[in-house]
Structure formats: structure tokens, C-alpha cells
Amino acid sequence: MKPTYLFIVVLLGAFTTGCQTTKEDTGRVLGGVIGGILGAQVGKGSGRTAATVAGTIAGVYVGGSIGRSMDDVDRLKMGRTLETNRTNQPTSWNNPDTNRDYTVTPTRTFETAEGPCREFTTEVDIGGRRETAYGTACRQPDGAWKIIN
Prior knowledge:
The protein is an alpha+beta fold and about 150 residues long. Helix content is about 50%, strand content about 30%. It folds into two domains: about 5-70, no CATH class; about 70-145. It has helices at about 5-15, 20-40, 45-70, 70-85, and strands spanning about 90-95, 100-110, 115-125, 130-140, 145. The protein starts with a helix and ends with a strand.
């Protein structure tokens, strides 16, 4: 099976398992896509498939952890960061209810037919471990930022 097809099968399986919240699923998909892409770039020859699968699984885990950890206030702060920060200007905060530290950094801004979009990095301290996820969000007509990948 080609690495791309295997990656899609693994990602779909991870996305459809269990009854999890939408934010966790979003985190899993983001993490799985990024992990699979990075794994495919690192692996060579026959090891490429294994690297893609390993990257996807690791990404699903990390992305799901970050998605689970964010509450409504965290998502609002993330949206404000995407709306107001210059590229590569991070915003950090601590959520006193969850005792998690977040840093969101917009890394690229671009226009689409539907409006502005931004790539970003999210770092969060979960249980003493620093985890990082990457994604893209686009501004919706109501002004909210929606993660698209």
C-alpha cells in the first residue's frame, strides 16, 4: 500500500474512533495530518511507510491532547491572537481553571476567496510536557476564526 493511502486509512481510523468532543477530533486531525506529512518527509525507501504511520499516530495523540485541553476562554484568546498579532508575534497565557500554559504564534497570513487565513503554532504544557501543534485557521463571516486543517 502506498504511504499516502496508508496515511489516509490510519488518519480516518483515528478520527472516527470513540465518541470524543469536536475540539479533540479537530486536534487529532490536525496532529495526524502534520505528523504524517513530517513522517513521510523523514522516511526513506521502505522506511517511509513506517515513518508516515509513526508520524501520524504521534500527531493524532499530540493533537488530541491539545484539542482536549482548550476550553472556550482558550479558544477566544487564540482567536484574538489570530486576529490582532503580527506574523511571528506570540501570545502566551495561563488558564487558571486547567493550570495549562499556552503560546499561540501566527506564522503566515494569506488571503483566500472567502477571506483571510493564518497558519499558526500552538504550544501547550500538558502535565509537565510541552506539546506543539500546527494548523491553519480562516476568519468566518461572523468574525470568528475556524480551524480548517
